Amino acid sequence: MERYPFSYNPARPFIQQAGEWVADVFYELLPEAGFEVRDEQIYMAFQLEKAFAEKKTIFAEAGVGTGKTLAYLLYAVCYARYTRKPAVIACADESLIEQLVKPEGDIAKLARHLDLRIDARLGKSPDQYLCLRKLDEARVQGDEEMLWEDIAASLPDFVYSHAPMQAFHAYGDRRDYPQLSDEEWQRISWDSFQDCFTCDRRHRCGQTLSRDHYRRSTDLIICSHDYYLEHVWTYDGRKREGQLPLLPEHSSVVFDEGHLLESAAMKALGYKMKHVVFEELITRLLQNEIRESLAVLIDNAIVQSEAMFAAFGHFSRLIPGSDRKEIILHPELLQEVHRFRELLTAIEEGLVFESELYTLDDYQLRIVEEHLEMMQKALMLFERSEALICWVTDSPEGLVLSIMPKSVKEVLETHVFGLNMPIVFSSATLSVDGSFRYVADSLGIGNFLSFSVASPYDYEQQMKVLAPQWPLADGFAGKMKEAARALQATGGRALILFRTREELRLFKQHAAAEPVLAGMRLYFEGDGEISHLISAFQSEEESVLCAVSLWEGLDVPGPSLSNVIIWSLPFPPHDPVFIAKRKTAADPFAEVDLPYMLLRLRQGIGRLIRSRDDNGVAVLLGEELRTDPVVRERVLAVLPEGVRLQD
């Protein structure tokens, strides 16, 4: 295979030659294959050439239909081959990854029409893989309604064999189990409390084997924002433990739907703690020959951990519409945290002495020390609570404490934006009121390139946007009737986007009793693996897809998606993350809530028109359009050019 898809002259700048080839692709090669010449796409390509040449961060805001994915893929592949390091394409979530790599997706199009062999491999997040330990636990529990035994029997022979693995392959991908709901999948999938470092199955684990596979990619590694930022966050720690970083050295990064990176960063650059995990970890030390004084400290720490988590349960309160509980920073709670931290410090000092006696297994000791250091960092942050966001959630094994920094700017500036490599933010919605500062400031990006190009589609002719009038006093029932009428008008063929999972649950609960919906096929996010639900929705033209996470990235051209119903205007949730952001804003509604909602609303409406032949209607059911003139005015301002809001 030729290294470059063009004749390379070492005497001339590489990116300049790559740009000339990209121009040939868009002006000649793709039009010969039936693609149209798009001025917006070519303009974007020349802007990306500058970013790659200068190794800068660029905000590439390009409307639906500009072909932005093709533009960044061409540069990413060429630059990967030039540097001999793969490019990373980081998508907002796993469903967007599937959209990119599906057989009719953009990577396949380029490979087919340019006769270009592209080595693109998936780096899925760990929770997208089956955990052998959790599967065994589910089998032991003996739930007769679930087919855990069938799943175990379907695994490759080498999983349960003790013989050396002569041949192996990745397995256990979430996509392989579409029949499982999200709740069922969580019973057997990896979670953040699994200790992979000491697991005796780790060398036969599907997650480990998939990692070995994608590391060998020569062109593209496609992962989620969460996974890329987990790589950033764990990079130093994994090296200290003698582990490879999650991702190999790479040449460039593309953040597809980059406006969502901040929330992913806050999620990844945080800590989670659970009492049962701490107890299991720390009691490993008791299996070794250790001094009695250290054993007493360990017993005391276990007791104090229970007391601390009991205090978190007592000093927390439910947040309506969220599974997260807000923590009340009471002096009694802070005192319990401080006592626990003092015991951890004493244990760490004791481990230093024990390590000099060589009575502890060195590998086990390293794992325990790494976990204790993580807990110390998290609890130190908690004691300086003005610098963090924290909450607790319930789980079958007890409370889970989550702690994350309020600002992720410093970490991202050092480990991402300071690496002197091309970084592309790609989305149809990156600016607010024509400025990119809202996204740039939230990520700590001071020096960047940017451009914005509109969609080539004729929205005035192709799209209608409706804001139905129904008696607001009728509440949920009134909105339900209006949604049913909208679905009846288009014979299904609709995507319904919900702001929260609670809204989706209520709609699902009431849909069964709605006569108008009786003959319609409704798919609900969470009832199965998301890419299979999308595929079924696309193939069954008169079906309806109900989702919380598909505001971005869903690409279903044609009559299967002729109606997008926005159940509620997508204001940010009332959870600890946004509560903290609001507290630091001079005008929380104008600085936090409204920009977030407008960006997401633009994305949601953007699911409707995906080709020049598409026509459809977007139905906005947000009550604020009728009760808040400011909100209505701002929504009108972000509608596609020529489109008016019809009551």
Please describe what this structure looks like.
The protein is an alpha/beta fold and 647 residues long. It contains 25 helices and 19 strands. The strands form 3 sheets. It has a 7-stranded parallel beta sheet. The protein has a 7-stranded parallel beta sheet with strand order 15-16-14-17-18-13-19, with helices on both faces.
Helix count from the secondary structure assignment: 25
Largest β sheet strand count, sense and barrel closure: 7 strands, parallel
Mean model confidence by pLDDT? 88
Rg from C-alpha positions? Answer: 26 Å
> What structural class is derived from the secondary structure elements?
alpha/beta
Shape: globular
Distance between the termini: 58 Å
Fraction of residues in β-strands: 5-15%
Helical amount: 40-55%
Strand order of the largest sheet: 3-4-2-5-11-1-12
Low-confidence stretches: none
Q: How many β strands by DSSP?
A: 19
